[in-house]
Every structure is written in C-alpha cells, then in structure tokens.
C-alpha cells in the first residue's frame, strides 16, 4: 500500500466518522424536541458503534421513559424510524442509526446473545438445525452475530413480520 493510499483510507474513515457524528447530532436535536413536546425528562447520549450512529435517551426516572419504549419495544422501533427519517430529511442520505431508550436495547441485546449461544450449543449437541421464533431485524442481527461467534452458520427465513432465524449445523 502506498503512502497516498493510506492517507486516503484514513480520510475516508474520518469522513465516515464525521458523517455518523452529524447523524447523531441531527437525531439528538430531533429527539430533544420530542422530549420537550412530550414533557419528558431525559438526557441524550451519542456514540458511533459498528459503523452506525447510536443515540440513547437516559433518565434518572426510567419508568417515565417506558412510555417511549412501549410494549416489547414497539414505540421505540417507531421512534427510531421517525428519527432516521428526520436524519434523512436533513442529510439526504439513508440512516442506519440505532436508538436506545432507558437501556431497553442493551438489555435486549444481552438476552438475545444468550439465546443465540444456547441455540448454537443445541445445534452442536444434536447436529440438527434449530428454528427460532420470529424476530425483528435488530433481534435477528444480534442472534446471527452470537451464532457466528459460536462458530456456526445461520440464515433468516420467512416473510416480515414472521421472519425467523434458523441455526445450521457446521
């Protein structure tokens, strides 16, 4: 690799980080407006995780934020899509931003990683494929990652909203 190529790659990485930070800023402004309208207290934390902007709403009173999570994260999913649309409106680019509220996604990620590891272990033991219950795209991604970390393959099958993960033997 030549010296010019190295600096170009570094510049592209820097541009991506700057773009993701910009997405986070736009999302934070949008979410602050929503919190004000809903008269809810919450702090907004921004980060970049796995090549996507990650924005979290945290509060000293998590029960209050439960309204923004909804039953099994349904309201959270809707708010994430609205936030992505707000970012798209400002930047003109499709956003893959992840939104977490009150640590809901972080807890869900832990549970799903354990589910994926258990399913991988079951497949290693039995040698038979295992079909999991239908999941959202976020949930399937976490499970696929856990299965890959266990050294197995997995696929998604079915049509939304009944799409599910199948864990395959090695």
Automatic annotation (TrEMBL):
InterPro entries per record: Jag_KH, KH_dom-like_a/b, KhpB, R3H_dom, R3H_dom_sf, R3H_KhpB
Keywords: DNA-binding
Domain R3H: 106-170
Database matches in SUPFAM superfamilies: R3H domain (SSF82708)
GO molecular function terms noted in the UniProt entry: DNA binding; RNA binding
Pfam families: R3H
Name of this protein: Single-stranded DNA-binding protein
């Amino acid at each position: 690799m030549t010296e010019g190529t190295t600096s170009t790659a570094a510049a592209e990485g820097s541009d991506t980080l700057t773009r993701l930070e910009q997405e986070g800023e736009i999302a934070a402004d949008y979410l602050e407006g929503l919190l004000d309208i809903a008269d809810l207290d919450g702090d907004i934390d921004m980060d970049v995780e796995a090549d996507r902007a990650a924005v979290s709403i945290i509060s000293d009173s998590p029960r209050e934020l439960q309204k923004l999570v909804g039953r099994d994260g349904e309201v959270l999913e809707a708010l994430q899509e609205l936030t992505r649309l707000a970012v798209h409106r400002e930047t003109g680019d499709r956003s893959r931003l992840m939104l977490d509220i009150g640590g809901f996604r972080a807890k869900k990620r832990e549970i799903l990683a354990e589910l994926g590891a258990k399913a991988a272990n079951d497949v290693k033991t039995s040698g038979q494929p295992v079909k999991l219950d239908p999941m959202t795209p976020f949930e399937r991604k976490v499970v696929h990652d856990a299965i890959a970390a266990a050294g197995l393959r997995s696929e998604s099958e079915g049509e939304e909203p009944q799409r599910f993960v199948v864990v395959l033997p090695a």
